[in-house]
Design a protein that fits this description.
The protein has two domains: 68 residues, SH3 type barrels (Roll), CATH 2.30.30.30; 33 residues, no CATH class. The strands form three sheets. A five-stranded antiparallel sheet has the order 6-3-2-1-7, with no helix packed on it. It is built from no helices and nine strands. The protein is mainly beta. 0% of the residues lie in helices and 41% in strands.
Length: 110
């Protein structure tokens, strides 16, 4: 199985396009390219019933974020603050993502 190249990275702000959390914005906590999924902060929360253990001696119900398909999220451009499609172009010999609405570079060059 081929690993999908995701259009979003850890730390990006994204907008959810479909599902029960449609319209919500959040930060990508974790990107899972092997499964083509992302975990977004405050979106797609599930409740887990856990047994008591050393880390959580009380046990109980824990609310946490579950992964959702990467195709259901769209990157929010930091420059124009709108959800936009992205493209890739070469800048100083390095490929970077850019916003197709405002043509601004999204990736910060270090």
């Amino acid at each position: 199985m081929a690993i999908a190249k995701l259009h979003v990275k850890k730390g990006d702000t994204v907008l959810v396009l479909s599902g029960k959390d449609k319209g919500k914005q959040g930060k990508v906590i974790q990107a899972l390219p092997k499964k083509a999924k992302v975990v977004v902060e405050g979106v797609n929360t599930v409740k887990r019933h856990t047994k008591p253990n050393q880390m959580n001696p009380q046990g109980g119900i824990i609310t946490k974020e579950a992964p959702l398909n990467a195709s259901k999220v769209m990157l929010v451009c930091p420059a124009c603050n709108k959800a936009a499609r992205t493209g890739k172009k070469e800048v100083n010999g390095k490929f970077v993502r850019f916003c197709k609405k405002c043509n601004e570079v999204i990736d910060q060059t270090k």
